[in-house]
Amino acid sequence: MENVRIYEIPSCKMVSSQVGMFGDGKLEKFDEWFSTLPRPMFPKDFLWYDEKKGGFVWYYIYSEDMTIPDEFEIIDFPGGLYAVATDIDGQDNSKVLNAIKEFIKEKECYDEDSTRAYLGNIITPPSANTAMGYNQMDYYIPIKIV
What domains, with CATH codes, occur in the chain? Predict the structure, then answer.
């Protein structure tokens, strides 16, 4: 059984929190904003770490009917293929990231795409979080076909 999935995120517009750190208010405001939107079947938010700027950036897939607060911006997201696996949020993610990298290596038809950032999102509905006591997180490693 394969535990790593291949997703393609199409190029699209996304609302961006811009760079921030948890605790400085920027990411919390972004979470508050998108949490008011109707909950879709699959999460539309993606968190990543901007190593150049030293902080987290949160994206949410944009639609024209949204009201976007002034402190956020709309960006062009390049999209692409991702190798994705799930683990428990808030724990050491090295095991799941290594499993994804091993999958990429074993397949021999993909390489990691270093031009794009790793992404993550929480896939657990609130009711399941309450029942289990934790969230599940999908980890996305960008890939390209070789």
Answer: 5-145 (3.20.80.10)
